Amino acid sequence: MKKIIAIIGLTAMALYYFYGSTPDTDIFIDKIEVKNAAVKKVAPPLPLPVKKTVKKKEITKASVKKKLTGEILDLTSTSHSLKSIDYIIDDRLKQAQIYLPPQEYEKLEKVLKKHFDGEKIVQKISDHLAKNLSLEELEILKKRTEDPFLTKVWGLEEYANSSEGAQAFKEFLVASKKDPSPEERVALMKKFDDMVGGTDSVVELNSAIVRGILEGSNSTMPRDQKMSTREIKQMTVMLADQIKDNVDTKVVKNLLFTYQELSDGDIQDLIKRSSDGTFSKANDLIQEKLKEILLEGGREIGKSKLHLN
Distance (Å, rounded) from C-alpha 76 to C-alpha 152? Predict the structure, then answer.
């Protein structure tokens, strides 16, 4: 179960780390069925009766898939975690309001609210899953959301990605300086992170924003000052290495906080489940779409030519 369980929480961290120094489409369309009655020709002709159109909802595979993806995202706390981006963006905007002139702040607010809206991101992710997962795969995922253990795990993640959880995480970091987690527990969380690709996911998402900003900024430069595609790629890779150096420890601390109520045996169970093919495929699709969303948002930030502290 590669990370419908935790990667979305780390998505919020990706935005958090970038902006601060601390821690597609199947839709159901109602079909109108028009019943035309046979009209006998008589003399003299009689006025034709007015027939009312009758809306008939047809249960289609697309509508079932759309419903299932919505339920899966809700039951796995994925929707909640994605929407936590909203209050992270609000926090970044509050900080930007301190150092940006009013006109520049309004410009930044417009860009961030448009491209990093939690509700819209959830919808885009839902559409992407419905489009790229089969009905059978979605039914398998839905069935596994009934697992009591996973339900507990997702509940812990939902709390960790709430505003209350964010405050509790800060308190956890302070407390851990005086009373650090046992080395065995830290090693276990590092193993879990390696298996589910948490750190790599955060780096990829941050890199998508960075690349987008570079591309957006580059598009506004005079021709003789533009960077080549190769130069942008090289700079993105260099920055990704810097991001990873700063993120890996923070990710492990986040995992220690999020799963502090789980025993070592529970974590071992999660590690075993990380190889689940269906969850891995769903996670990869989520990661793929998120990178696309963050890349696009980064480009708009770059085009705005705004300076972010």
Answer: 10
